[in-house]
Amino acid sequence: MTPHRELFWGIEHAWLFYFLAAVSVGFFLHGVVSRGRIWLRGARDVRLRLSGRGLRSLALDGLLGRRIFRGDLTAGLCHALILWGFLGLVVGTTLDAMDHYVVSFLSGDVYLVFSAYVDASGMMLLVGLAWAAARRYLARVPRLENRAPDLVLLLWLLAAAISGFLVEGLRLAIQQPTWGQWSFAGLAVSGAWPAPPPAAFAAWWSAWPSSPGSHAPGCSTPWPPRPA
Predict the structure, then answer these.
(1) Which of 14, 23, 65, 219 is disulfide-compatible with 28, CB 3.0–4.6 A?
(2) pTM for the model
(3) 207: containing domain
């Protein structure tokens, strides 16, 4: 059998997925607009000018976290894991959608590489979030504020990342594909499930944690978190 993945595995009513996705996007846009209004108030007299130097600073400071690394190496590594792990999952989700709605290409060797890539991105995010929680609540770094919205968002992102691996592990435990080792993190989790998992339980468990609606409260957090 050619390596592939069944989209919407365990979810019978796909319309619920899209409804929750729309709700999540609504929360996200609300947060962007709210923050944008605050930023614009302080930038009314500032003219935005595109330049090579500005784009270079955007890449080094915004995407690579140069300023964070200069101030605190461990904070820089923590932020990099969270940022690039999350962006990696966004890219993976985009490619999955393109495969389903535009042109099918995630099969065979391409799918195997894709599976390893997505698992690696998820592990980066999970490690970064766990590290951020340890810095904030175990090491108690003095400069970090401990506000309720920061804790809520950190726990929500951890729950989303962990539930993703739990669902993947459940799918691998049920399907037991011969190429399962490429999803190395999910394969490790699959051993935690009973063999074979009850079908009814599998359908119930896979329906909620993997849905985009589970991320909505995190998107609507009223204050921007600083997890590390």
Answers:
(1) 219
(2) 0.76
(3) 53-213
